[in-house]
Amino acid sequence: MASLIERYHQWRRRTFPASKEDVAWRHDFLNARLDSLGARFDSVDRRLNEIGGSLNVTPDHTRLEPLFESLRRRAQTLIDGGQRMNYYSSESPDGLGYWPLSEEECPCDVHFREYLASRDIGGKSIFHFGTGAHHFVGAGELGRGNPNYVLAVTASPKEHADYIDLIIRSPRLARFYKVIFTDIYTLDGASLPAFDIVTLFHLCEYWDPVKSAYAPLDDRKLLGLMIEKLKPGGQIIAYTRSRSWDKAWPLFEAAVAAKALRAAEPFKTLNVYAKV
Ligand SMILES: C[S@@+](CC[C@H](N)C(=O)[O-])C[C@H]1O[C@@H](n2cnc3c(N)ncnc32)[C@H](O)[C@@H]1O
Questions:
Q1: Is the pTM for the entire model greater than 0.85?
Q2: Ligand 1 test: best mutation among 99, 200, 211, most atoms within 8 Å of CB?
Q3: Mean pLDDT throughout 208-228?
Q4: Is the CB of 202 under 6 A from ligand 1?
Q5: Interval between CA 92 and ligand 1 midpoint (Å)
Q6: Given a cut of 70, is residue 58 above it in pLDDT?
Q7: Measured between alpha carbons, how far is 26 from 171 in angstroms, rounded to an integer?
Q8: Which domain holds residue 231?
Q9: Under 8 Å between Cβ of 2 and 10
Q10: 15 located within any domain
Q11: Which of 74, 156, 205, 229 could form a disulfide with 97 if both were Cys (CB 3.0 to 4.6 A apart)?
């Protein structure tokens, strides 16, 4: 009997036969586009400097407004320290931020699917931190009788490009599986729905005091936001084999001590916390 992962890969090859080859061109195209945008930004930047130097004219606010707007935007970039998004770029085996499914190395997504199946959880609203290149959690909802509704985030341009490819080939999947390309530490409660289940398997793995300086959240605030977004009785699932479990665990413990969460029955490598 083939393992769950082998059967998943067989299914994925059958359903999305040319996925990787098809997206390769898009990555090259995106890289070239980024380089050209960077060059254009530099040239606009130089021009703004020249104009800024000759601004000793009688100010006509109506005519100057577009220029002020550009200057404001440029100033904002400077305030942000000219930072680029802390996107997922180097940790994966290919060194390009594209994480394959490996039950041996990182079984959290496999265990989560088993957890959902073992409790026959369907029709629920799920937030998932970190799709991986495999999209194992979201893609698994396709073909289920009572699928869950998964909203997932990835900070990997390549993983997100694969999602685009998946739903172009299988638009039905898009009904149950949405992926946002974003830095999770920039999320805001105003743009999120309420969830029945939130996975925070990678809490404390990616926030960086320098690279994430533009983001309003850190790991403690992210956990707080997700507790807020849980429906009554909802669950947050943690991954006890995370490389940052030593940092994430005290955050969960603090939430339990504050009576925001209570520890429920664990499942394999996953700790389950219920909203109090
Ligand atoms: C090591 S991979 C794990 C993927 C999958 N959960 C698994 O275990 O196979 C980490 C995932 O977290 C995502 N990620 C890393 N930093 C992130 C951030 N700041 N915001 C959102 N997603 C992030 C990556 O894009 C990637 O999908």
A1: no
A2: 99
A3: 96
A4: yes
A5: 10
A6: no
A7: 19
A8: 108-275
A9: yes
A10: no
A11: 156
CB distance 181 to ligand 1 below 6 Å: no
Name the pLDDT band for 46 (thresholds 50, 70, 90): confident
- 43 pLDDT exceeds 90? no
* Structural domain contains residue 227: yes
Kindly state if the Cβ of 87 falls inside 6 Å of ligand 1. Answer: no
Residue 66 lies in a domain: no
Q: Report the number of distinct structural domains present in the chain.
A: 1
Report if residue 216 sits inside a domain. Answer: yes
CATH number at residue 191: 3.40.50.150
- The label of the residue with tokens 């949405």 reads 178
